[in-house]
Amino acid sequence: MGHTDYTQSFDSVAVQRNVMAFVGNGFDIQALHDYGARVDTRYEHFYDFLARRHFDPSNIIMQEMRELKDAGAADWSDVEGAVSRLLNGPKVARAEELIEALRQLQGQFSEFLDAVVPSSILTELGADSARHKWAMESLLMFLYDLSPEQYRVSAFPTGENLELYNFLFVNFNYTPLLDDFIHLDQIQFDRLSRRTVDRNCDFHNNPRGVEPHEIKPKDLSSSYLMADVIHPHGQQSVPRSLLFGIDEPVDRRGNQDPRLRLAKPFWAQNRARYAHLFEDTALFIIFGCSLGGVDRWWWDAIAASLGQQRDRHKVAREECRALSHESCTYTPELIIYWYNGGSTPLTEEEVRAKFFEGAGCLDDSKALIHVILYDDRTERVWLRTTAQRPTALAPVS
């Protein structure tokens, strides 16, 4: 089934190219930092919020976090990590106890987010995105972030006109910060920019100007653009929708396994709602995610797609007789953005290994994965929330 087919919604779409972007808490932390917020959405700040409120000290998750903090554990504030340890560790807690403890935290976390992400930040972020065309730059010029070596081995840039770029953002965050940032408003996204055709953007095929390459530097393709955002784990505006918990157990004991009460993929209905999307995604992008096992369902689905040759979306096989084989097929690729500004930076190889570890599978040598290591000083296009754009970047159109 795959992604929604938009090829018949416009006049001249040659092929639809689907991109799935997975965005974690790293984006919210970045945005709040860039807009001068005193606290951000990290769990350690949530713990402080609960402590100031004198939250129920008998809550078993709160107790676990407190004990880990006193013991000096690096990940003491990870709520979902605490759930996993209590469910599977030496101090085994019943699933029913954890469910009730999480319900108590659910409403508190929503109120915490209301305090951390006020409407004033959303207003300012949205205005800046529109004024600086941040959404359009991210969607149309992100290939700038690939190194020349990565760009040369990527098959994603084609240099062809009439392609429809369909972006689906899987926002793991509960806040609307990403939604606000990526919204294609009338200021930066002019659907009436062409007089005689309905193309609505120019995709930048070689924005870094990599040479030598078959696509000339700064090459543009007259294209179509679609973008949407989903929140599989709930939204801040609906407190009871917030999902905390674990990945679905691989050794689940039927439909009555009590651990399913805590499994985010089960309650988000991942298989029914999202599994089909991996069937025709040409490019996966991960940004701001820890690549931990709590989101294993998603990482495993990506890993299973990499290295698998697919037919291009809505290009009939009989049409391929007149085209080269490469034009009719594609092999999905993955871009991982990894923030290396902390005290324990990783190499590209270590990030790749971390992804497959999080996916719960062995590294597949056929998988084409581009790891982009960055920090606060790195020139970057994708999901940038500062006005300092790369100096060599052409204007977006």
TrEMBL record:
<dbReference type="Pfam" id="PF14253">
    <property type="entry name" value="AbiH"/>
</dbReference>
<protein>
    <recommendedName>
        <fullName>DUF4917 family protein</fullName>
    </recommendedName>
</protein>
<dbReference type="InterPro" id="IPR025935">
    <property type="entry name" value="AbiH"/>
</dbReference>
